Amino acid sequence: MNAPIPFPARPQPLVSLRGFTRRFGANTVINGLDLEIADGEFVALLGRSGSGKTTLLRTLAGLDGPSGGEVRVPESRAVVFQDARLMPWKPVWENVMLGLGGRDARKRAEVALAEVALDHRADAWPLTLSGGEAQRAALARALVREPSVLLLDEPFAALDALTRIQMHELVLGLWRRHRPAVLLITHDIDEATALADRVLVLEGGRIVAEERIAAARPRSPDAGLRRRLLACLGVVTPEPAAPHQWAEAAE
Question: Which of 10, 65, 122, 179 qualifies as a FRET site for 1, CA 20 to 30 Å off?
Answer without folding.
Answer: 10
